[in-house]
Each structure stands twice: as structure tokens, then as C-alpha cells.
From TrEMBL:
PANTHER family: TRANSPOSASE, TRANSPOSASE INSI FOR INSERTION SEQUENCE ELEMENT IS30A-RELATED. GO terms for cellular component: cytosol. Pfam families: HTH_38, rve. This is IS30 family transposase. SUPFAM superfamilies: Ribonuclease H-like. One of its GO terms (molecular function) is transposase activity. GO terms for biological process: DNA integration; DNA recombination; transposition. Residues 163-325 form the Integrase catalytic domain. Keywords: DNA recombination.
């Protein structure tokens, strides 16, 4: 009987990420994971960006390999038109998917899962078409409810909304306007810089903070988000740090939904974690961040936002972000 092989999990990839940052050898990492050294070596070689292994990139690449194939519900396609016609009759996505398979058993081109239908509906930008499609759903939720709701894990912050209640479109990066936030801290946590990254475009905003308090975070994030068009402020995902204790006020001021990741789960905010690594090239650990000006932070963000990214097919975050703004509101530009 041959040896059974299972692919690396996201938890294992995050362990590789952390162990690499600690300077452990590939052999030591493999022992910790109880995996062959060759498997860890291939994983690191395949997913190293610059000098650092990228766990989030590795996970995306794995999912992409599993999901290779054509997009089922293309705009204007016969299949999409049939789906819309059946939903107009009051059918649910599950009924539409089952009926199409029954009507066309020998034509896979006309088969589609109900989850694909849901994702296609919620990927449509806000407007009359989106409202029309959502209105045809049985419960007409404005946001897609997760398939597995999970337990709402509330911590010490009051009235947190769990990441497990976040719309499915956020994880899929289908629609722009969903952000991740964090703090980069100086020695002894005595100085802080806020980081805000838009998930789809990887567009970065850096925020000068007077300290790491909740009040300073509220003021700084409010100030930065005021320069962002409303259509590009859908959600913010953060960890459960005490600096977000004023999150309810922030949500009202900025008109944004705030979600919180599970404790000790940096992989739930991969865009921010990876971007923080890039920022550390300019603001290394151990540097006192108090003297750093907002102007200098803007210059860092400008450099990173104008750096081509492979994940964006070598477009820059600034180009993608600007295009997304124009798609929502022609003639509206981001104020620096």
C-alpha cells in the first residue's frame, strides 16, 4: 500500500511562516510539523516572496489550483440569463440549480451550484441590478450569510461582531471596499502607527497616532477614512486589541461595518499581516514611531501603493483602487 499524503493545512502554513521568522531551519520546521523535510522545502521554495515565506499567498495558490476552470455565470451568458429567468419566477438558487441539472443532465455547461449563484448575485456592485437580484431571494439579505455561521466568539470588547458574521463576498475579494486594520508598535508599545489595507486592491493607508489608546485610534482612523468615498467603505476587519474599544463610535462616524477576528488568528487578516511585513522595511522593529510624521507615512504608503504586485497581475494597488472608485462613482477621486 502506498504512502498516504495530505496537503498542508492553513494552520501548518502559518506555523511555517512563524518558524521561518524565528530563524528555524527547514529540518527543524519539518520535525515540528511531523512532515517530511522535502515537503516543507518545496512549500517554502514555491511561496517565498523576496526573502520571506508567505503563508497567505501559499493558501491562495492552493485554492486557485483546486478551482481552475471557466467562470460559470459570465455576464450575458445563456446560463446566467436562464438563472435570472427562473429566479424571477420566485425560485430559490438551490431550486434553480437542481432544476437546471435535471433539465440538462448531459450538458455540464448548463449545470451550476446554488453557492455559485449566491456568489454571483452578491458580487454585483450596489445599484438597481443588485437590488433586483437580491429582492428575488427568499430572505433578501443585503449581504450573503456564511454557510457555517460558527459561534460568535465575543471577547473583552463590548458589542463585537464576529468575523464569522462577515459577508462571504469579503473573503472572496469579489467587491472592493473591505478593509483590514492593525497597529504597528514601537518599543514597549509606547508609540503606534495605524495601518489600513483594502483587501481587493491591497491599497494602503498609514495613520499617525499620538499613542496606542482607543481614543487616539478612533481619531486617527476617522481622520483617514474621511478621505475615502462612501462606496469604498463597506467593512473593516480588526483583531481584538483594546485600541479598538471605541469601534461602535468609529462605525457610526465613518459609516462602516466593523468585524473582529478570532483571538490569536492572524491568518484571518492575511492582507494586513503581509502588508505590515512590507511596512517594516521602512519602519523596522525597535524604531521609536513617535517622531514619525504623517507626511513621512504618506510617502511610505505612496511607494508601496505604486509598487506592481504579482497578485494584481502586475498592476499597482493605486491603479486598482482608482479603477474601483471610478466603477462606483465616475468622477470621484481619493483625496490624499
Amino acid at each position: 500500500m502506498g504512502t498516504h499524503y495530505s496537503q498542508l493545512s492553513m494552520d501548518e502554513r502559518n506555523q511555517i511562516h512563524r518558524c521561518s521568522n524565528e530563524g528555524l531551519s527547514l529540518r527543524a520546521i519539518a520535525r515540528r510539523l511531523n512532515r517530511p523535510t522535502s515537503a516543507v522545502s518545496r512549500e517554502v521554495a514555491r511561496n517565498t516572496v523576496g526573502k520571506s515565506y508567505d503563508a497567505a499567498r501559499a493558501e491562495r495558490a492552493t485554492l486557485a489550483r483546486r478551482r481552475r476552470g471557466t467562470i460559470k455565470l459570465k455576464s450575458g451568458s445563456v446560463l446566467l440569463n436562464r438563472v435570472r429567468a427562473l429566479m424571477a419566477e420566485g425560485w430559490s438558487p438551490e431550486q434553480v440549480a437542481g432544476r437546471l441539472r435535471r433539465m440538462n443532465p448531459d450538458d455540464p455547461a448548463l449545470h451550476v451550484s446554488h453557492e455559485t449563484i449566491y456568489c454571483a448575485i452578491y458580487a454585483v456592485p450596489r445599484g438597481e441590478l443588485r437590488n433586483e437580484l437580491i429582492a428575488q431571494l427568499r430572505f433578501s439579505h443585503k449581504a450573503r450569510m456564511p454557510r457555517a455561521r460558527g459561534q460568535d466568539r465575543r471577547g473583552t470588547l463590548p458589542n463585537m461582531t464576529s468575523i464569522h458574521q462577515r459577508p462571504i463576498e469579503v473573503a472572496a475579494r469579489l467587491v472592493a471596499g473591505h478593509w483590514e486594520g492593525d497597529h504597528i508598535k514601537g518599543p514597549g508599545n509606547r508609540s503606534s502607527v495605524g495601518t489600513l489595507v483594502e483587501r481587493k486592491s491591497r491599497y494602503l493607508m498609514l495613520v499617525k497616532l499620538r499613542d496606542g489608546s482607543a481614543e487616539a485610534t478612533l481619531e486617527g482612523f476617522t481622520r483617514k477614512f474621511r478621505h475615502v468615498p462612501l462606496a469604498m467603505k463597506k467593512s473593516l476587519t480588526y483583531d481584538q486589541g483594546r485600541e479598538m474599544a471605541r469601534h461602535e463610535i468609529l462605525a457610526k462616524r465613518v459609516k462602516i461595518d466593523v468585524y473582529f477576528a478570532d483571538p490569536h488568528s492572524p491568518w484571518q487578516r492575511p492582507t494586513n499581516e503581509n502588508t505590515n511585513g512590507l511596512i517594516r522595511e521602512y519602519l523596522p522593529k525597535g524604531l521609536d514611531l513617535a517622531p514619525i510624521s504623517q507626511g513621512y507615512l504618506n510617502a511610505i504608503a505612496r511607494q508601496l501603493n505604486n509598487r506592481p504586485r504579482k497578485c494584481l497581475d502586475f498592476e499597482t494597488p493605486a491603479e486598482v483602487f482608482a479603477r474601483e472608485i471610478m466603477n462606483f462613482q465616475p468622477g470621484v477621486a481619493l483625496q490624499s
